[in-house]
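Annex B. Sample input.
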Amino acid sequence: RPGTYRNVSGGRGQDDCADCEWGTYCPFATVRGLTCPPGSFCPLGSAWPSPCPAGSFSNKSGLRLSEECSPCPPGLYCDVPGLTRPAGTCMPGYFCVASSVSASPDEGSCPAGSICPAGSGAPLPCPVGTWSNQTRASSATSCVPCSPGWFCSGQGLAVPSGLCADGYYCVNGSKVSNPTNAGDAAVGGLCPQGYACPSGSIVPSPCPPSTFMPLNGSSNCSVCPAGFYCPTASLTAPLACWPGFYCPANSTYPKPCPPGTFSILQNLTIQNDCALCTRGCFCQSSGLIMPSGLCSAGYFC
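Annex B, continued. Sample output.
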């Protein structure tokens, strides 16, 4: 009967036949078992080769058990039984773990934050400083530099890690929230004097007129103090208010002492700081540092 053989004459019945040996198969009327071919395995008493199951293959002959078939390697797939070699490589946008039976397995869809070129056995994470919200991506160009104003500190990010920190700016592709090293210059840096960098800054923002900032790494500008003025953008220090003028807080330009007053002092803060014109003198115009002259004869001042 199939699955048995007899290699000597004189047999009287099926009971005189022996089971086909491990690694061979015995079809009808077999004198000697046939070697199990590649892509198959043959347990004891096999009438026909049994194909290696889908997800495996074998290029060797004489296998005895299904466990002796080789699992399909990562990055390849074995979609049908009886293969002597893998059927092919995993499709772009997918990854195939060992023993995959499909070139595009549902469980092997490439996740966001990774890329899967053809033949991938596992997702390749986007490198530090990049991210990707695409699924089934296959090209390295899918990993884009971290968005301006953001930083990407880890591998395999589907979204940026967070906003650039207060006092710093992040141009493009920043790996940290506070780029300060020389190697970070292309992707951001510490906010310079005269500028402000609130969280999420793409570039330093110049301090507007009436403000200043003497320090590096500031997230906001300081209001020009009383007694000083700040006439232009990006100032690192306020300017002292001139004699004959006064400067309230937040001044862009000094305000002149009005007619009838004068001042020889700097850094006046309010109009009342201006001195009344000296008795016997007159102060005809605004912004005077001394009286305009003596009162005319026949008049008193």
